[in-house]
Amino acid sequence: MWNKSNNKKWKIQNKILGLGLLACVSSVQAEVLIILPESGPLARAASSIKQGFLSAYTASGQKVPLKWVNSDQKKISQLLKQHVSKKTQMVIGPLARQDVEQLVQTKPKIRTLSLNESSLTAPNIWQFSLSKKEDAAALQKQIALDEIQQLFVLRQPGSESEHELLLMSLLSQSELQLEMIEKPPFFLKSKQGILLLGNADWLASLHGLGH
């Protein structure tokens, strides 16, 4: 699940994670390839991850070159083929779940840390993601800051069961009025908000719908 809140947990956990990963790359000739979307629905989440990782990079004093690659609207197999070289010691990313599934299918030979979870697995791939309860806690903090009292929830068709734990956790942590909807509202009143739950392609398909 990804939402528009500025998730500080991502920054903190990625700072810690970044320190550990950089410590694993010992050669001064090594290179870390980081695959994140610079545009599209997940760009904001990717920006928080990037800030956390760069903070870890600065704190570590490492000189390992970081190569950033934009994954928005690109096939993971092509990105790996184009950007992985003999110097590449580790790949971090991608972020979108469907991209992680593509990553698993490519079965990369290099150590790779995906930044989302998939039911599929493959050697050399580690999967990292916040739990649904942590997602709900971070979302609740942002909702409180925005003083939202009524939240409309629009889920990608066919993915409803995937988000049940998140919604249950959110309800247990707040007194929000949750209303499930089947299409984006034309407008939102004061203290109302909308939560979109789905993959990047579905979120992109909503562009221009509603107001």
Helical percentage: 25-40%
The total of helices stands at 7
- Total beta strand runs: 8
Q: Give the low-pLDDT segments.
A: 1-12
By CATH reckoning, the class of the largest domain would read: Alpha Beta
Averaged pLDDT, please?
79
Short description:
This protein is α/β, with parallel strands linked by helices.
Detail the topology: elements first, then pairings.
Elements: H1 8-24, E1 31-36, H2 43-60, E2 66-70, H3 76-83, E3 88-92, H4 97-106, E4 112-114, E5 125-127, H5 132-145, E6 150-155, H6 164-172, E7 177-181, E8 192-197, H7 200-205
Parallel strand pairs: 1-2, 1-3, 3-4, 4-5, 6-7, 6-8
Helix pairs in contact: 1-2, 5-6
Structure commentary:
It is a single chain. With 211 residues, the chain is α/β, with parallel strands linked by helices. It has two domains: 8-127, Response regulator (Rossmann fold, 3-Layer(aba) Sandwich); 132-205. It is built from seven helices and eight strands. The chain has helices at 8-24, 43-60, 76-83, 97-106, 132-145, 164-172, 200-205, and strands at 31-36, 66-70, 88-92, 112-114, 125-127, 150-155, 177-181, 192-197. It has a five-stranded parallel sheet, with helices on both faces. Helix 6 (164-172) links the parallel strand 6 and strand 7. Helix 1 (8-24) crosses helix 2 (43-60) and helix 5 packs across helix 6. The longest helix has 18 residues, at 43-60. The two termini are 22 Å apart.
